[in-house]
Amino acid sequence: MSEIAMRGWRRSDGRKGIRNYVAVAYLVECAHHVSKEIAWPYREQGAHVIGFPGCYPNGYALKMMQRLCTHPNVGAVLLISLGCEGFNKKLLERTIKDSGRPVQLLAIQENGGTRSTIEKGRQWVEAQLAALAAQPTEPMDVSELVVGTICGGSDATSGLTANPAMGRAFDFLVAEKAATIFEETGELIGMEDWMAARAVTPELGAELKACVAKAARYYETLGYPSFAPGNADGGLTTIEEKSLGAYAKSGASPISGIIKPGDIPPRGGLYLLDVVPDGEVRFGFPNISDNAEIAELIACGSHVILFSTGRGSVVGSALAPVIKVCANPRTYARMADDMDVNAGRILEGTADLDTVGREIFDLIKQVGAGAATKSEGLGHQEFILTYKSFEPIGPACLPAVA
Amino acid sequence: MASSDTDPRLLVLAPGDNIAVARLEIAADTTLSVAGRTVTLQRALGFGHKIALREIAAGEKIVKYGAPIGRATEAIPHGGYVHSHNLTSDYMASTVPVEAAP
What we know:
The complex is a heterodimer of chains A (about 400) and B (about 100).
Chain A: E1 6-10, E2 16-17, E3 21-26, H1 32-39, E4 47-51, H2 59-69, E5 74-81, H3 89-98, E6 103-107, H4 114-133, E7 138-140, E8 146-151, H5 162-175, E9 179-182, H6 192-196, H7 202-221, H8 229-233, H9 239-247, E10 255-259, E11 269-273, H10 290-299, E12 304-309, E13 322-326, H11 329-334, E14 341-342, H12 345-348, H13 353-368, H14 374-377
Parallel strand pairs in A: 3-4, 3-5, 5-6, 8-9, 8-12, 9-11, 10-11, 12-13, 13-14
Antiparallel strand pairs in A: 1-2, 1-7
Chain B: E1 10-11, E2 19-22, E3 31-34, E4 37-40, E5 50-52, E6 61-64, E7 67-72, E8 81-82, E9 87-88
């Protein structure tokens, strides 16, 4: 296969985007409708809606919005405020301005209400889309990519085909110095000793174990079952074996560090994203649905998300393309329009892990060169952000920079 | 991988693994090749269920995808079925919950 030439838009922090979107961001649910209406006519031209629904301020949500609004795939940002919400909109606006991106803040209460704010917002978005379309791109190397991985709608095939194939793709990416991120610490229970042995330092290994122990405690408090009888019927015997299926997404590279939502990997390598909040259990489940995790992976700078599914998830995301890797050949046959890769061929014996891993790797580069994923083509732009609380990562979490 | 001398209905996930998994349900009494030995299944092997690729001693780690998933509680013959009757977690004393929640 001939080399695929990726091109990106260079941002002031040196990162490059593989898309050049206008983000329309609501700062409270009360501004969601207006934001949606502003973006709707331009949804196929690169206007994406993101936002935070809560009225009360939250440090995690602020950091997430700061990172998302300055994500390399974002070229300009329209902030929609009702006017009286608790979100620190001035700080968010300044963060975006400091990044060199055009930003406009419209408060609905100060702009004549719904109709006139929609009108003003659309004028601004239209002007920005025209300006962004004229911006030049530069060649982009695999080493400049950040790729996240997640699984959702899993079944017994996920751990046998799609997850390890994505792990293989991760190995190819890391070999070319890209940054890769895996997460779901609650699904790594039983794998921590094994995982810790892959850490680049013993101190990081200890942090990896602590990270999984935190997840185990958190889910136990919430009454989450870790191993159900249905797992045994599917052929899984132990918790280690069940976790191994999810763990396989990480591939076989050394683990370079632990990051938390909104932390950008400092260089290439494999990173664990700790998505479980710190401190006592608050605000309910850590991630209420797959898109909450996808948003966190994107806030960490992911340009592309690899999504493994057995039963058949259809979601995409705002701001970054989602590549759907289907684990189950029957699901693929039923939902081929939604699936980018058929990893079920591994079960049918018509492809091996390396072949599918290489296919995923090549597809990432094609998407980086501008090709649309299935979910992008279908207009999927899901986004969700809820309350959480985190402490900053400790010094042992990123050994190479400490 | 030992795939060349193993029936294609079995999936050997990584080199060094001591078990393979069934790609699809294989009926009882089926005779098939497992890492060079001909084995007749005593019982049906469900999709995703495990079979030993060689003799495994009591106490030995069961290795799947290159990772240990627990240890054998008894000696398992080459071609033997591997599940909760002869494999236990190193992580939790009891793996399968007693109460059967739907």
